[in-house]
What does this fold into?
Amino acid sequence: MTVRVSKSKVNLREKLSNHDNPIGAHGGQILASKSTKETQSIIGTGRKNMLINGGMQIAQRGTSSTPSDSSSTQYPCCDRWGGQFSAPSGTFTVSQSTDAPTGHTHSLKYLNNGGVTPNNTHYYWIGQRIEGYNAAAAGWNTPFGKHCTLSFWVKSSAPGVWAGAIKKGGGNVGYCFVYEIKYKDTWEWKQVVIPPPTTSSSGWEVTNSASINIQFDIGTSRTSDLGADTIGKWQTHNTYTHNDTILPITRIHGITGATWYLTGVQFEPGRVATPFEQRSFGEELGLCQRYYIKDTMIREGSGYGVVTGALDNIVGIQVDFPVTMRAAPSLSLLGTTYRTGGNSNAERVTPTGFIWGRKQTGGGTFHGAAYATGGYSVEAEL
It folds into this structure.
């Protein structure tokens, strides 16, 4: 028996386009895709978002703080989102908010408490440094780097043209982008397509160092941080934002009571912004804990040691982290801490855990003890 299969005479792409009836919520994007790979990226197979905690759900450090005047990067509330603030303490309150667009539960909120007159020394930005292992998907460390798309939800009491920057983690290279907030106090979805760097591909890390920095300008007017008068072009410049001479940029550091909200932030390979990648709370927390862990469980350790010869014996608290951290972290013990015994302190911190107690060196017997009533925090941020 011979079976003949006739080739369909109907072009599905053309048919759906003619009837304006795309399949699913993102059928229009699928129809516009030019390759199987691009179609798969729209469907959302695999892990695509290079950013962590883009939905602002995780806030291990606390849900609100007022950053201090410091050139060091501070992490005011939502995990992985850090910034620099050159204003007296209390000028801004940065908090995790439950004001969010449909499909999201939380956002990051900036509130200007007042007391600042803008000048050319100020810089206020919030953003995230992407680790090289995650940024490798962009291919910017090769001559064949990909276009990437930054998408996000934003709301502000100050409509206007806002700015931000994409920067090399360890180099003097940046790309200024702008977006418009059209309506006051209304959630709006934005997307920005970023071309691959036109400068050297060297310096875009693909290991555990900072590779790509995503930054949103809140109130930067320091002259040295302003990019050249070019929007949407890679520059050899340590830029945080766009220069105002061509296009005036909206900033809220001089507007008392002004607010700015951000959530649903995604940075992915490709020229098309796909639906925000919704991870489970547990998975997102685990990704955040590669860089910061706060554990408030009371820790206590004690014991009896015998030391012979040149060997060391340590007695105290043994803690294993829930995930392997990016690097050996800095350790802070919380609450009341205590350790005794032996002849010296012991702190052995690795990416997988730590021992905190007392050490005996050079022979003898000893009793040792250590405790921390408030638990611990460890940080290995980029």
In short: The domain at 46-288 is CATH 2.60.120.260 (Jelly Rolls).
